[in-house]
Amino acid sequence: MAATIKDIARLAGVSPATVSRVLANKTAFYGPATAQKVQAAALKLGYRKNTAAAELVTQRSNVIAVVVNSVKTNFSSQIITGIQDTAAAHGLNVIIVYAGIVDPEAQRKALLTVIERPVMGILLLSINLTPENLALLQGAQTPYCFLSIAFDDGDLPSIASDDWQVGYEATQTLLKAGHRKIGLAAVDSDSHTGRFRLAGYESALRDAGVTPQADWVQPGVYSYAAGREAMAAYGATSGLTGVVAGSDMAAIGVLNQSRDLGLRVPNDLSIVSIDGTEMCELVQPQLTSVSQNFYDMGAAGVRQLLEPDKQSQQVTPIRVVDRQTVRVL
Amino acid sequence: MAATIKDIARLAGVSPATVSRVLANKTAFYGPATAQKVQAAALKLGYRKNTAAAELVTQRSNVIAVVVNSVKTNFSSQIITGIQDTAAAHGLNVIIVYAGIVDPEAQRKALLTVIERPVMGILLLSINLTPENLALLQGAQTPYCFLSIAFDDGDLPSIASDDWQVGYEATQTLLKAGHRKIGLAAVDSDSHTGRFRLAGYESALRDAGVTPQADWVQPGVYSYAAGREAMAAYGATSGLTGVVAGSDMAAIGVLNQSRDLGLRVPNDLSIVSIDGTEMCELVQPQLTSVSQNFYDMGAAGVRQLLEPDKQSQQVTPIRVVDRQTVRVL
DNA sequence: TAAAATTAAGCAAACGTTTGTTTAATTGGT
DNA sequence: ACCAATTAAACAAACGTTTGCTTAATTTTA
Q: What are phi and psi of A313, to 5 degrees?
């Protein structure tokens, strides 16, 4: 139904080869008059290029695929904006596919949709692949890079914040304000990210002469619910004066749960959040946070795909931004 | 570099045709022994199908493209989940591309990435196309459907809430609670959506015997900033006791601005939000909202693509969910 | 003015699949 | 034991492009 290059060729009275060349703006191989005719014919027929066919023969593609793990968190929007802008600057297109957060089968399907078609590179946002799916990804000849997640295996290309430092600086922010009894909420205990944040947290405590207590840390999956649960576990009488939350969502969870427990933030409890998305400024009081540079992660991700020679594990800087949830004692 | 069907054929000692058939699980045309050999060879070579090539010959695709306008609002996540689930149930894949919210050129590029490759259908989330870009979309032979947006032109297929009803019910919620002086904040005055919400708002007022006042409506683009600006424009002494906000984000804007103005919600000012995303329950006090059924919009969208015979303008139901921002007078 | 150089356009192969048609081999029925 | 019917596999065309090579026509150069 749709017009092809051959239809144009017929209408303009030239060969498909010539049509291809003028439509691709090749510099030579045809005269101005032919160009006119071809352009006119293409317009008249409402021609749309079949990119799949073109990619098939050229064996290259200009699309970057982004795999994201969940629709929930919205820090991904900043990364995607970074990807989008940088990709556009290089004449690349971006498509996004959702993989389930845990379901390996959904993960596999998302990966396949991406691998089984010609893409220039794959960016994985905060995705933890099962070993089988990782093998699948590596089996494809496509360059890839993990974003906002790091691994113990140093060979996997990734761009993320230094999680140890994140944990350290979040904790230190509270220590500097005079807090001694500090909780760590809704950080998972399984992943690289969680373990390093925990280590950073404990180091900061020790460097300040505070001995970490086991019941100060309430692990969780970084979600709003996890934040609430962690805070509920602490209860109103834990003696904690500050909490580091694993994400903005988690921080809002501890914030709201604190309120339910009759605790006022920051008067009775100080909170430092991790991420620093726009959410921090939407809630009351505004969340003091260790802010990650998500936009740059995205930008660095596409650059990494373009020049795979670079070092594989990159780190983007963080900074703490002081808002309203830390009270200095 | 990547293994093709021919490589498998060579390794297994059969023809490419046979390989294609066993890999596609065709029922006949080959024996169990050959099937074994082919499977083994495919596995050994780490074969990945080239979907683009397959789509080229079959002239059909099983991917749905979703065009979203901005990374900001997160109501889209619910629609996308609806799309995703329904698509998966039909064996379809989903890819997402971002179009700029206003920039026609970005819009055009996003549209082209989608049109110029074989997709089964296109879903446009809350996208307002320029006339040229609309023509572009219609020129493609691909079925499409707009989601969460409606048009004056009744021929454009769309699935959305009844915006008049949204405006009406939001306003009525406040009227029922005894409010008489009610504002409408951060609803735009240009689009179909904005005009109909405004009309619904005014009808509700009139039906209750209240004469709408011009300075009760402060138009805006549904954003957090627009909410803040609208509330700032009202000021602390407007006499308004209730405000209908154009979106959850806008509602949070009026909420926070109210606080800055020294107004307590809902004691001094009641708020009804429009959308009903998870944001409503994250802020304090939790936002009473006219909630849209975004998940169903997404689901209905993919069904619409599959059966284009259906009526083109569909409406999904809304419901008001009472939370904590409406005070009964 | 003839040969060389340049320009303009067409030919045809290739990319990796799918699938209708053909051919070869095996089985079954009588 | 012969022919029909069935099964198994290969052949080859097609999908819509791109691009190296060839050919034809025109212009330049000496």
A: -105, 105
Among A42, A51, A48, which residue's Cα sits nearest to residue A19? A42
Alpha-carbon distance values, B240 to A2, B171, B321 (Å): 57, 13, 22
Q: Does any domain span residue B329? A: no
Calculate how close chain A gets to B238, using CA atoms only, in Å: 24
Statement to judge: residues A168 and A134 lie in one domain: no
Quote the minimal CA–CA distance from B279 to chain A in Å.
Answer: 10
Which residue is nearest to the C1' sugar atom of C10, using CA?
Answer: A15
B56 domain-assigned? no
Q: CA–C1' distance A273–D2 (Å)? A: 87
- What's B311's domain CATH number? 3.40.50.2300
The nt closest to B4 (CA vs C1′) is C16
Window B30-59, strand C contacts by Cβ < 7 Å? 47-50, 53-54, 56-58
Interface test with B, best of A66, A96, A103, A256 (most B CBs within 10 A): A96
Report chain B residues whose CB lies below 8 A from the CB of A49.
Answer: 116
* Protein-covered nucleotides on strand D (Cβ within 7 A): 7-12, 14-21
| Distance, CA of B74 to CA of A4 (rounded, Å) | 39
The rounded distance, in Å, linking the Cα atoms of A117 and A51 is: 12
Determine the angle formed by the axes of helices B224-234 and B248-260, rounding to 10 degrees: 40
Give residue numbers, 34 to 63 of A, with CB < 7 Å from strand D. Answer: 47-50, 53-54, 56-58
Structural domain contains residue A19 = yes
Number of domains in chain A: 3
Same domain, A176 and A118: no
Q: Which domain holds residue A13?
A: 5-49
Cβ contact B284–A282 (<8 Å): no
Q: Are residues A211 and A256 in the same domain?
A: yes
Ordered per-residue pLDDT tens for chain A, 329 residues: 688 999 999 888 888 989 999 888 877 778 888 888 888 889 989 899 999 999 999 988 999 999 998 655 566 888 999 999 999 999 999 999 998 777 888 899 999 999 998 899 999 999 999 999 999 999 888 999 999 999 998 889 999 999 999 999 999 999 999 999 999 999 999 999 999 999 999 999 999 999 999 999 999 999 999 999 999 999 999 999 999 999 999 999 999 999 999 999 999 999 999 999 999 999 999 999 999 999 999 999 999 999 876 678 899 999 999 999 999 98
What number of residues does chain A have? Answer: 329
**Beta carbons of A118 and B52 less than 8 Å apart:** yes
User: Is residue A324 a part of any domain in this protein?
Assistant: no
> Does residue B69 sit in the same domain as residue B120?
yes
Kindly report the number of other CB atoms within 10 A of residue A6's CB atom: 11
Residues in chain A within 8 Å Cβ distance of B224: 278, 282
- What CATH number corresponds to the domain at position A33? 1.10.260.40
Between CA A119 and CA A65 the distance in angstroms is: 7
Do A235 and A278 fall into the same domain?
A: yes
